[in-house]
Amino acid sequence: MGLRRSTPILVQGITGREASSFVAESLAYGANIAAGVTPGKGGRRVHGVPVYNSVVEALAHHPLHATVISVPARFVRDAAAEALAAGLKLMVIVTERIPRRDVVAILEQAEEVGCQIIGPNSLGLIVPGQTRLGMAGGSADAVRRAYMPGPVAVLSRSGGMTTEIASMLTARGIGQSIAISVGGDPIVGSTFADLIPVLAGDGRTRAAVLFCEPGGSMEEDLAAWILDHGLPFPIIAFIAGKFAERFPGQRFGHAAAIVEGERGNPRRKAALMQEAGITLAATLADIPPLVQEALAAAAE
Predict the structure, then answer these.
(1) What does pTM read for this prediction?
(2) How many CB atoms are located within 10 Å of the residue 189 CB?
(3) What topology does CATH give the domain 1-122?
(4) 147-300 maps to CATH 3.90.550.10
(5) Cβ(68)–Cβ(10) below 8 Å
(6) Which residues are CB-contacts of 112 (< 8 A; sequence separation ≥ 6)?
(7) For this structure, is 47 an active site residue?
(8) Within the chain, which residues score under 50 in pLDDT?
């Protein structure tokens, strides 16, 4: 994704309570939040960040690359359309419970203009030691404790587990190239199968850890991609909620965590991922040693 400390970030909805909070902590971490947008509130400042009435107005003053959208669900489609029309190349949507028709419209427009979407219902992403988009990891001090730079990508369907896994790796001296909360809604902009090829070409990632959940087909789609294209680097995955298959049609946690027959069944996910060469961790505690083994084997 080419993100670094200098990457200029826009925050749409910056004057909201949630956005104002994560902006303060992201600035403290070193992120370059260059501008914010809240219609009708241009001219203000939030933690020193200038606020504009529109994305176009913000771009007239700052060479922005990425945006974080933190606005009420009913306004996300318009906010995203404005950013996409302006040519921003990366968008993190932290808002949840967005109507599915709006999400589909956003993703269709993003594909047309070549913008990568993370979320919706995402805590964001962190490039350790460089920058943060969104609120992943909590306070700046907490991020510094949980994350450290290194060669392992963390991709998680659970926002909270993004940081938990990074912290477990950090405790074993294993750094992260990037950590992404992909989003917990049924439809998200970037799946595992979208992100792994991007990470394979970034020159920094040598392994990946996936936190998987019941429901959806994200894991199955990744397995199919690997069978077609090959395993780009070692991937270690943990599948949570194995009990969910006993309760078909019930939602557990995120909106996407619904098992319907074989679709989204954790056993089926596990079988397909193993067939594709992904290493499965039986417990969360198994993840760090499995990653260490994989990195050591890849270095031989």
Answers:
(1) 0.93
(2) 24
(3) Rossmann fold (3.40.50)
(4) no
(5) yes
(6) none
(7) no
(8) 244, 246, 252, 255-257
